[in-house]
Design brief:
This protein is of the alpha/beta class. It is about 35% helix and about 30% strand. Bound molecules: adenosine-5'-triphosphate.
Length: about 240
């Protein structure tokens, strides 16, 4: 498999705080890759470095081209970012949120896309006029994913989808992500605190520690390595 996304020695900082100290990782087309690690390890910042929402240096290549510029340019290149905390527009309806997800597209056919997404999230049609802020936490997370998919991205960046959700809902969200990957070939880079569920979903993972990759490998290798599990994965 060829790499769709490659990060090479990527550093990022928030003013005086250096959050990433040289991250190197890659995601192949059609792969689900997880980024794991403790609080503050730099997981969210890694996704932000890709989506252009933090100041970064180093080399990021997407689909064979250097990825530069801010969030708008990155979105147009085919990358959709579901940020931590979801970023749904709570005042707007479900459909309005979905339409905003397609803002980088010039073509029509949004209605057909909403119907296509309803295969995965059937309630999107029934609740089309409901204000997003009145949805449950799990539904808001699913809406955030659906909104990102409206852009028809080649790569989905998913930040901590489990945040604040009940285990059953988390399992449902990861099941949908896996099915999207298997049936539609969606490539996903997912940041997750819950290493167990992330490793059950992803083919490979990178574990970060203080802004660096501490270990990486296939999900099976990481799960089977007891010292990795104890030291980095917390179970
Ligand atoms: P968590 O699991 O808690 O979300 P994380 O692994 O995603 O953690 P980041 O949010 O990427 O970690 O943070 C990496 C480092 O950058 C931390 O030291 C954090 O305090 C710092 N940091 C993050 N956002 C900012 C910011 N806006 N301003 C200053 N420092 C920040």
């Amino acid at each position: 498999m060829t790499a769709l996304l490659e990060l090479e020695d990527v550093e990022a900082r928030y003013g005086p705080v250096q959050a990433l100290h040289g991250i190197t990782l890659e995601v192949a087309e059609g792969e689900i890759v997880a980024v794991l690690g403790a609080n503050g390890a730099g997981k969210t910042t890694t996704l932000r470095a890709v989506s252009g929402t933090v100041r970064r240096s180093g080399r990021i290549t997407f689909a064979g081209k250097s990825l530069r510029g801010g969030p708008e340019a990155v979105a147009r290149a085919g990358i959709a970012h579901v940020p931590e905390g979801r970023g749904t527009f709570t005042e707007l309806s479900v459909t309005e949120n979905l339409r905003l997800g397609a803002y980088t597209r010039r073509d029509r056919g949004l209605k057909a896309d909403i119907e296509r997404l309803a295969q995965w999230f059937p309630w999107l049609l029934e609740r089309s006029n409901q204000q997003a802020g009145t949805l449950s936490g799990g539904e808001q997370q699913m809406l955030a994913v659906a909104r990102a998919l409206m852009a028809r991205p080649r790569l989905l960046l998913l930040d901590e989808p489990s945040l604040g959700l009940a285990p059953m809902i988390v399992r449902e969200i990861f099941r949908i992500v896996r099915e999207l990957n298997e049936r539609e070939g969606l490539t996903v880079l997912v940041v997750e605190q819950d290493a167990r569920i992330a490793l059950r979903t992803a083919a490979r993972a990178y574990v970060l520690e203080v802004g660096r990759v501490a270990v990486s490998g296939t999900s099976d290798e990481l799960q089977e390595n007891e010292s990795v599990r104890r030291s980095y994965l917390g179970y």
